[in-house]
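User: Quick one: structure for sequence A, then sequence B.

Assistant: Sequence A:
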Amino acid sequence: MADAIKVLVVDDHQVVRRGLRTFLEVQDDIEVVGEAADGAEGVARTEELRPDVVLMDVKMPGTDGVEALRRLRELGNPARVLVVTSFTEQRTVVPALRAGAAGYVYKDVDPEALAGAIRSVHAGHILLQPEVAGALLAQDETNAGQGRGSSLTDREREVLGLIADGRSNREIARALVLSEKTVKTHVSNILMKLDLADRTQAALWAVRHGMAG
């Protein structure tokens, strides 16, 4: 299990945590390293256990999933957060994505699809439903980087376009014949130049400014 994707499950319902753990533990490439019952405990356990992926509920008593996401971003924790929610309203999902989630799935998701989603966000992909991406754009909160696109180099524009296409750093490296380390540097430069917080915002910025493939 040395190369397994380490997963932390954060949900206030024990039956949900148990169900997710039961399914995920039969996956050869996924290891559940812990659980948490609310957002505050989720942040603490993420810092302690350093999982690769966190499955995070949105609505929880006390510290909810959105606030937990914000705290993890402030701490600079590298874990990828996949929101697992029973709420379908955009007003519930959009704030979580704004706070740094790599994507979301619903609690009635097919088990195999959930495993696929975990592998996808771990690989660096962003999971956005078209209607939610549209809602994020409509909120017009991606203007932080507007007007700064001219500061990007041609290579950074290429990388940004591939981010918008949902490519991981590894896939971008292969497409552009670069090392993965070089791609990470380009991504960091893009976020800095456009004053954006994460890949999700970068992808939305690229879509808004016609740079997606």
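Sequence B:
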Amino acid sequence: MAEDAVSPGSRAAVYTTLAAGPAFRHEIEIKRSRFITVLARTGDEAGARSVVAGLRKEFHDARHHCSAFVLGADRQVQRSNDDGEPSGTAGIPMLEALLKRETGPGLADLSDVTAVVVRYFGGILLGTGGLVRAYSESVSGALDRAPLVQRRRLRICSVAVAHAAAGRLENDLRAAGFVMAETSYGAQTTVLRLALPDDPEGLAGAAERLAALSAGSASLLPGETEWIDVPGS
């Protein structure tokens, strides 16, 4: 697998990845060869390579376990492996299927995804062109069916309110479209946490909306940024 430089920080504030949960699987058959595609959400190279190693054990009798993965909000880590198929006929088409996947109009930002295609040879040679199409279509077909989610870099802000007012305010915030993080409870107050766009305009707008919803009794305390899954974006 070729090595690529890793950027020290992320410029992206949002990207698309697989929804959290078990790996997604999809199988097709082409000229008696079985192509089993497994898509897994992975946050680093160790995780990606662990997925590949696990599938080698699970499908130990298969001839090929070709792989590709894209990692990082800026997609700075990109790897592929033909695993015995003719050079350039498996790993690179799989990687391109990940990189070129449109997640919105004119947008390709899929990342933190490992794709492994397990091939059971059916006895009929596909040729280099046939292999390229088979591996590309295997990954693309799996992505057509896999659950995807937006992952956003958001600023976690705290709002401390009296216990008696916390439930109503939380419901009002959710109804207003705010993304809620975890809630904690102290002796005197409930601390609601909001995941807000990490920009001055977004924070200022949220503070104004909070003041209106709480009749001026609550205020925002900005904290650290976190990457948060935002379903339905």
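Residues 63 and 151 are 35 Å apart (CA to CA). Residues 1-8 have pLDDT under 50 and may be disordered.

User: Thanks, that's what I needed.
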